[in-house]
Design brief:
Blueprint: H1 6-16, E1 31-36, H2 46-53, H3 56-59, E2 62-66, H4 74-79, E3 85-89, H5 90-98, E4 104-108, E5 115-120, E6 136-139, H6 143-155, E7 163-166, H7 171-176, E8 182-186, H8 187-196, E9 201-204, E10 217-221, H9 223-228, H10 230-249, H11 251-261, H12 269-281, H13 297-309
Parallel strand pairs: 1-2, 1-3, 6-7, 6-8
Antiparallel strand pairs: 3-10, 4-10, 5-8, 5-9
Helix pairs in contact: 1-10, 2-10, 2-11, 8-12, 10-11, 11-12
């Protein structure tokens, strides 16, 4: 079970009603801040909705608008000044930043890898990654998938050969009906849904076969915005952290708030509660010591090096980078209150 450390206990104390130190600028009219989502509202976004609807953003002088999800990537909206902050999947963030997008990660939503390679539990012929050689993968069309799956298979002694059928989200239906042999899923969303629907699965964890563990989801901003509005960014980071700390300590209440805020899209409260339970009990939103939000330099550098070596990081012309970037410049913990 997740524990909350003293640092984040302070944040929860603030959430319970203790006043935080509000800078002079924040005591005037609320300052508008926009946040773009990486997908339709889901439990990865819960801390944003909690911070907004519990008044944590208002406490620090912010009026935060969570923008409706659109086809344009959140990183693109942020780097082009359409949104001030955005939720970004880690691989998309790395590739956009490498290509020259003005992006910087300021908050780690997820502390450890939520993805996994899955297949139906009754597939007796699949016992380890090398058994995937020659089988059919239901995929999503990214270079990351090929590098990831090939690494899993080769590190288990296989050749890394598999057929790919690009299906997008239809991959999960194709897996269920046996049209493909395996796919990738986010355990805390698709995996939980499979459990609730009584579709037994087995899985391989990436880190067990040589792929670095990672923060799978970040909140990002731009260097341009951060340099112009450092106090505003710090207020946003502090309040967002309070929102996620509250969600970890009160998952059922946070789930209900997320559903209430998105009635037209989230129509299965039991599923949202189960997803929140998985996020909390699996130490995804918070580390085992209770820390939320902080970005681990080692994880950023290890995943960056993996992507560079795999040839996934490309410049603005689409050419593979010839030398690794300074991944330490890809992120900052500066805007998290009480960050170590």
């Amino acid at each position: 079970m997740t524990t909350i450390n003293r640092r984040d206990a302070l944040l929860l104390g603030l959430a319970a009603g203790t006043s935080c130190a509000v800078p002079a600028w924040a005591r005037a009219d609320k300052t508008k801040v926009t946040v773009a989502l990486d997908w339709t509202p889901n439990t990865n976004h819960v801390g944003l909705y909690v911070a907004r609807d519990k008044g944590f953003y208002a406490d620090v002088g912010l009026e935060v608008e969570i923008l409706p999800y659109a086809d344009t990537a959140a990183g693109t909206l942020v780097s082009n000044r359409v949104a001030d902050f955005g939720v970004s999947g880690a691989i998309g963030f790395f590739t956009q930043r490498a290509a020259g997008a003005d992006l910087k990660a300021v908050y780690a939503v997820v502390q450890t890898e939520t993805g996994r390679l899955v297949f139906n539990a009754d597939r007796a012929g699949i016992q380890r990654p090398r058994d995937l050689d020659g089988r059919t993968y239901g995929g999503f069309g990214s270079a990351w998938e090929n590098a990831l799956i090939g690494t899993l298979i080769r590190n288990d002694g296989g050749e890394g050969r598999f057929e790919t059928v690009t299906l997008g989200t239809s991959a999960y239906e194709a897996l269920a009906n046996g049209a493909v042999d395996f796919t990738l899923e986010v355990y805390t969303w698709e995996g939980v849904k499979a459990e609730l629907e009584n579709r037994p699965q087995r899985a391989f964890r990436y880190a067990d076969y040589g792929v670095p563990d990672q923060h799978t989801t970040f909140i990002v901003s731009s260097d341009a915005y951060l340099s112009r509005h450092p106090d505003r960014a710090a207020a946003f980071g502090q309040a967002t952290r309070r929102g996620y700390a509250f969600a970890v300590a009160n998952p059922d209440e946070a789930a209900a708030m997320l559903v209430e805020a998105n009635k037209g899209m989230l129509t299965d409260p039991a599923f949202i509660r189960a997803s929140m339970k998985a996020l909390v009990e699996g130490n995804y939103l918070a580390r085992p010591d209770g820390t939320v939000g902080e970005i681990d330099r080692g994880k950023v550098e290890a995943m960056g090096a993996f992507l560079f070596t795999a040839g996934i990081l490309r410049d603005a012309n689409g050419d593979a980078l010839t030398s690794p970037p300074d991944f330490g410049g890809y992120f900052t913990n500066e805007y998290l209150a009480n960050a170590q």
